[in-house]
Amino acid sequence: MSLTYRQSTLIRGSLPMLRAQGETITSSFYASLLRAHPELHNIFNSANQATGRQPRALLNIILAFAAAPNHTAELIPRLERVCQKHCSLGITPDQYDLLGKYLLRSFGEILGDRYTAELREAWEKAYSLLARMLIGREVQLYRQFGKWAGQRIFRIEDKVAEVDDIYSFYLWPVDKTPLPLFTPGQYVSVRVDVPQIGYLQSRQYSLSEAPNEEYYRISVKRDRGVPSGANGRSVDAAHLKPGLVSNLLINDYNIGDTLSVSHPAGGFGFDSSTAGGMGPLVFLSAGVGATPLMSILNSVLESPDVQQQISWIHCSRRKPLFEDHIRTVGRRHKNFHSRFWRSMLAEQEQRETHNPERDGVFESVRTELERVERSVLGLDHGAAEYFICGPDAFAASVRNFLLEQGVGELRIRCEWFSTGELEAS
Ligand SMILES: Cc1cc2nc3c(=O)[nH]c(=O)nc-3n(C[C@H](O)[C@H](O)[C@H](O)COP(=O)(O)OP(=O)(O)OC[C@H]3O[C@@H](n4cnc5c(N)ncnc54)[C@H](O)[C@@H]3O)c2cc1C
Ligand code: HEM
């Protein structure tokens, strides 16, 4: 069931108008979907709805797919990210029909008389093709999750203040059955009841310890919201809102409390079967972005015959997360190098898409990275692998720097903590 030539042409003809009205579509269609199905507030991230980030990301993918439904290769990494996120949130196939109904209705409202029965049928088919691709992949992922579909209850056995505003939670499964060995770099979705809004909310947290069958560790940074005038810019009042879930976890969840957690998910990972290979591993993080990289580092170090050079370059505003551990590793492993630098950058999480100073960020990251020896960055080694995680502008800048230095794209992997970043970077 592919689109006919005429249907593709009709769809392409409608794209300029839909693209131009993207903001109207995203604000109106989710509003009507959530009005008719308020229970979905429990699934969608309220902040990403308010800022429009997730609806925008969804619309971008649908329009990109519809523009070239037979050439989806470029979209695959983005679709994979979506499926991983969906599965960590327990999205089900039947919800696709519901979302499609409201989305296509909003297309009809934008296109008016141009939304003929023929065009509507073409769009229904295009949406259904994309939905079927996503559902197919999600079925596979759910199958891999095995018995742990949905949420599993964990008890907080320990809560450790790591550095200013970042707390680690040690989570042990209440049912005491062994945990699956996730791929280092993956995240879980933690779901909590948020009394302020009267709904459940899920947030993703990278697993910050090497895989093991007993417990998981997550490390959560308090999101204070941005004070007015941060970085010399004025910000709108909404940015003063402290983050809902991070503050709730840090303020109200203590040792002995339970948390509802999803199966690990996410495509940012490290294949530990290659640990002990010869290419240097270079970790580049900022702020709380050290979490998934710590899981990767610790799992690599578990291998008794680690030979390759490992470097960790970290940027933070104050004391770096996991600094003591990283320095201890440096003392024990002769082929390990660490470099730390201080910058406000590490505080800018989640807001850089609106940052008019992206070029400035790039320049400052480049200046810092140019101070690091090329050998530590593995720049003259054709097989070095790079793992980047931090605020969007940091990650994008590091990536650009590496590309400029001739590092091949396939050797650079980034984890993004915000929604829809692949489009923004
Ligand atoms: C794959 C992945 C891994 C992650 N790993 C980690 C991790 O290891 N550790 C970690 O600490 N975090 C991690 N995160 C981030 C985490 O999921 C949350 O996004 C973070 O904790 C903030 O959630 P919150 O509920 O506290 O804030 P939210 O309530 O989601 O708010 C987020 C921001 O949006 C702003 N905001 C809210 N409403 C509006 C509005 N109307 N207009 C403008 N701005 C608004 C808030 O002020 C706040 O700054 C990860 C995210 C992903 C996707
Ligand atoms: C063809 C259909 C769909 C597409 C193209 C799509 C696309 C997306 C995209 C691009 C993201 C952001 C991923 C990221 O960058 O992290 C996302 C997240 C999400 N999607 Fe979908 N999606 C579809 C269907 C659905 C359905 C049917 C539901 C359930 C009703 C759903 C619920 C969610 C939720 C809850 C999130 C996470 C929200 C957040 O963290 O802000 N999606 N989706």
From TrEMBL:
Essential cofactor(s): heme b; FAD
Residue span(s) of domain FAD-binding FR-type: 149-271
Enzyme class: oxidoreductase
Domain of life: Eukaryota
PROSITE patterns in the cross-refs: FAD_FR, GLOBIN
Record's keyword annotation contains Ubl conjugation: no
The family this protein is said to belong to: In the C-terminal section; belongs to the flavoprotein pyridine nucleotide cytochrome reductase family.
Protein name, UniProt field: nitric oxide dioxygenase
Species for this entry: Emericellopsis atlantica
